[in-house]
Design goal:
about 10% strand; single chain; hpI Integrase, Chain A; three-stranded antiparallel sheet; elongated; about 50% helix; alpha+beta; about 400 residues
Length: about 400
């Protein structure tokens, strides 16, 4: 439908129109030929006074030879720019699947980034912004229930935590570049964590003490961690179709694990007992778990986390500095000391480099003592001379 404009002054026009409800409305426009010879039309709103003021500004800009097209393009670019908060919202709503194993972890890391960089435009995030973020973040205290830890527990955020937050930032920026939201990704390195490698494993006594302070339905996933070297989220998300008890394996798909490669996890005798117990219990449960999760409570509901019961058991047993992830180290170290080949252990744990495998093998003093004691006994039984006997032989 053709729009009709009524001239009410030099370069000043109005247009009447009806709303969907039949109400009459009035809108003012500036219409003139600019210094480039281009016919222009600018909406000025519905208020007569402010419309006239807007006209005077446009006429002055035309005298100054302002490039109206340039302002329009800049305005478009400005409107198209996204802040980190806006891009993060799009990423978690549309670009990553909620059932991805790392989804919750990525959201937690992003929440920390957003607290400081949420209002920063993506194209303004450069090396200086990232360095400033790292410097300030490493001065932040570790908190519990939104309050800084006090006393002996008081400490600052670790390099590892900061690294993981910046890793998510790098993922978002690389994706923004691929989607043509920014022209380049700032060049920044994540701090090396080799010096921060944990070498903590649970001893046999600590493992038994933890089990002794946990309810049976929480004991079972801990046994699973101890026996399989699986990560906690891999274990708790496990569903029955992936448990092949006949073949003796848990068959994990690439989408189930961090490494994005299928993995076969052997089912040990102790884990087989737990699985049988769970099958029997779930068969009798009044509440049916439609998700098909393996590790459930006695009422049939899936176990989403064992962190709180684990921490409670750890405190009761008076065990210091032990994390759930340390059970991955514990299992891999145990397999190594039992003499299993590194290649077999790596296949079961999902590691694809010897360097990463060795980071998880934490040989302790008692391992060396046990190994060499057994080796000495075997040597004596075989009839080979001991060191003392060798030294007394005359030539």
């Amino acid at each position: 439908m053709e729009q009709k404009f009524e001239r009410i002054g030099e370069h000043f026009y109005k247009r009447s129109y009806s709303t969907a409800k039949g109400e009459q409305r009035l809108k003012f426009y500036a219409i003139f030929t600019d210094w480039k010879g281009v016919r222009r039309r600018f909406p000025l709103g519905s208020d007569d006074k402010s419309a006239k003021q807007g006209l005077r500004i446009l006429e002055a800009d035309n005298v100054k030879r302002v490039d109206f097209d340039k302002e329009k393009e800049e305005r478009k670019v400005q409107e198209a720019r996204l802040t980190l908060s806006q891009w993060g919202e799009l990423y978690f709503d549309e670009m990553i699947k909620p059932d991805k194993p790392s989804f919750d972890w990525q959201k937690r890391m992003f929440a920390k980034l957003e607290a400081r960089l949420g209002n920063v435009f993506l194209d303004e995030i450069d090396e200086a912004v990232i360095d400033d973020y790292r410097e300030k973040r490493l001065r932040d205290p570790v908190t519990a229930h939104k309050k800084p830890l006090a006393g002996k527990k008081a400490r600052k955020i670790s390099y590892s935590t900061c690294n993981r937050e910046l890793a998510i930032l790098r993922i978002l920026l690389r994706l923004a570049k691929r989607r043509k939201k920014i022209k380049a990704v700032p060049d920044f390195n994540l701090e090396s964590e080799k010096a921060l490698k944990r070498d903590r494993i649970a001893s046999e006594e600590e493992y038994k003490a933890l089990l002794g302070n946990m309810a049976r339905h929480y004991q079972r996933p801990l046994i699973g961690l101890y026996e399989t070297a699986m990560r906690a989220n891999e274990l708790l998300r496990l569903v029955w179709p992936k448990v092949d008890e006949k073949a003796g394996f848990i068959r994990l798909k690439a989408s189930d694990v961090k490494e994005k490669r299928p993995r076969l996890v052997p089912i040990s005798p102790n884990l087989r007992i737990v699985l049988s117990e769970l099958r029997a219990e779930q068969g009798e449960a009044k509440v049916v778990d439609l998700s098909g999760r393996v590790f459930t409570k006695s009422n049939g509901q899936p176990i989403k986390s064992i962190r709180k019961p684990f921490e409670a058991a750890r405190k009761k047993a008076k065990i210091e500095d032990l994390h759930l992830h340390d059970f991955r180290h514990t299992c891999i170290t145990r397999w190594e000391t039992e003499g299993k080949p590194a290649g077999m252990i790596m296949a079961a744990s999902g590691h694809h480099s010897l360097e990463m495998h060795h980071r998880y093998v934490n040989i302790k003093e008692h391992h060396l003592k046990d190994f060499f004691s057994v080796h000495e006994v075997l040597t004596r039984k075989s009839g080979d001379p001991t060191v003392e006997e060798k030294s007394s032989v005359s030539y």
